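Render this sequence as a predicted structure.
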Amino acid sequence: MDVLASWNQRHLANIRRRDLFNSVNRVAGYRKMLEIANPLEVMYE
């Protein structure tokens, strides 16, 4: 998955939390970074 779309601005689509989620994924061995965005951001890219 390249992008996770979520309306949950307070928790999932929060830019500050993205680094935390990706650091946990790196420790678990995942190489690809997960981009978390709201659906409007995904729609226009």
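Summary. Residues 3-44 form one domain. The CA atoms of residues 39 and 45 lie 10 Å apart.
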